[in-house]
Amino acid sequence: GCGNSALSHDLHELGYTDVTSIDFSAACIAAMRARYAHCPGLRWAVMDIRALAFPDASFDVVLEKGTLDVLMVEETDPWHVSPQAAAAMHRVLAEVSRVLRPGGCFISITFAQPHFRKPHYAQEAFGWSLRHAACGDGDAAAFHYFLYVMRKGQPLHPRDVAL
């Protein structure tokens, strides 16, 4: 769900000239295509993250920034996620795993703390390893966000398997 974020364009400006962005909103994708028409390496597609229309092993990197958080927005207890939200999360992650090439990376940027998010990511069925890091400016009053990196074809650490 790229939304109207400038991230795709920013990546393009940094030299990543082969970027595909998706969102379920046709209006959003139309606006982004128009806004960045001058960047031919940026591709835009209307798509549901739960049913990606890409072939298996299509991407070296899949990057999401807050998209998975939408799946949890109506959850009232992050310790006890509803079966519906858990199933939706699993479906999306299975799709991400499917479209990643061997050795590819899935990068997730979120405010979701590891004790809430890692159990979703740490599934042997996805065929990836899992690392995470807290990010922020060091100010105790500031919100921190978390970077999760999953590498396709590498095993999960035994402590993550136990989640």
Automatic annotation (TrEMBL):
Keyword Hydrolase tagged: no
Molecular function (Gene Ontology), one example: S-adenosylmethionine-dependent methyltransferase activity
UniProt keyword annotation of Signal present: no
Stored InterPro entries: Lys/N-term_MeTrsfase_sf, Methyltransf_11, SAM-dependent_MTases_sf
Keyword annotations from UniProtKB, A to Z: Methyltransferase, Transferase
Source organism, top-level taxon: Eukaryota
Biological process terms in GO annotation: methylation
Domain Methyltransferase type: from-to ranges: 1-107
Family as reported in the entry's similarity comment: Belongs to the methyltransferase superfamily.
Protein name in UniProt: EFMT4 methyltransferase
Lineage, opening ranks: Eukaryota, Metazoa, Chordata, Craniata, Vertebrata
